[in-house]
Amino acid sequence: MIITVLGFKGGVAKTTTALHLAAYLQQYEPTLLVDGDPNRSASAWASRGKIPCDLCDEKAAIKQAPKYRHIVIDTKARPNEEDLEHLVEGCDLLILPTTPDALALDAMLLMVKSLPKGTNYKILLTIVPPKPSRAGEEALALFQEENLPHYPFVIRRFSAYQRAALSGCAVFDSKDRSSKTAWGDYQKLGREIVKG
Ligand SMILES: Nc1ncnc2c1ncn2[C@@H]1O[C@H](COP(=O)(O)OP(=O)(O)OP(=O)(O)O)[C@@H](O)[C@H]1O
Ligand SMILES: [Mg+2]
């Protein structure tokens, strides 16, 4: 399975999502994380420590790909139309992470409109603030109302992710008391994807 993580806006957890999804899939079958962002944030993350899956850039990916059962591709923010077409063509599933704030939601809705017809995509709400904020629930209700394909759960905001990025590990290996709870959210995503 080839899964591409795509988003128009910066900082909506594309890299975090690609890395943790690859980490999830790697538990069961060989999985390659492809750093398709010229900023190389996934590579920088991995260089600070050890991530639980193999990683390469998009050039090396062509040679590496046949060795793996799953490929998860991290991409840059603000892809142009041509990038978008290539990215969509080359994958089985497109995950569109978005935070639940108005700016990110608007950017995501624009992106959905520009996707080629028939694209297999799903929206993933990320960095969702805890109660009393209702931002997550409200965004989920909006997706429901607009009939937009989305995951029915959210990735909650936890400090463990920043720690993980700094230590170059996945969130379950970060030294933070929310690390296991945080990982639980990406496990949900992984299970849902494996289920198909
Ligand atoms: N669930 C979360 N809770 C708290 N912080 C998070 C969460 N997910 C990601 N972050 C933090 O938010 C920031 C942006 O995340 P990330 O780099 O994954 O986004 P991105 O969409 O890949 O950004 P860019 O567009 O720059 O590539 C990082 O500092 C990351 O540690
Ligand atoms: Mg990124």
CATH class: Alpha Beta
CATH fold name: Rossmann fold
Q: Cα-atom Rg, whole angstroms?
A: 16 Å
- What's the β-strand tally? 7
The class by helix and strand makeup works out as: alpha/beta
CATH superfamily: P-loop containing nucleotide triphosphate hydrolases
**How many helices in DSSP terms?**
8
Instruction: Report the average pLDDT across residues.
Output: 96
Task: Give the distinct bound molecules.
Answer: adenosine-5'-triphosphate, magnesium ion
Largest sheet: 7 strands, parallel
Distance between the termini: 10 Å
Uncertain runs with pLDDT below 50, 5 residues or more?
none
Overall geometry comes to globular
Number of domains: 1
**SSE succession:** EHEHEHEHEHEHEHH
Strand % is 15-25%
Relative helix content: 40-55%
Query: Strand order, biggest sheet?
Result: 3-2-4-1-5-6-7
At CATH's second level, what is the architecture?
A: 3-Layer(aba) Sandwich
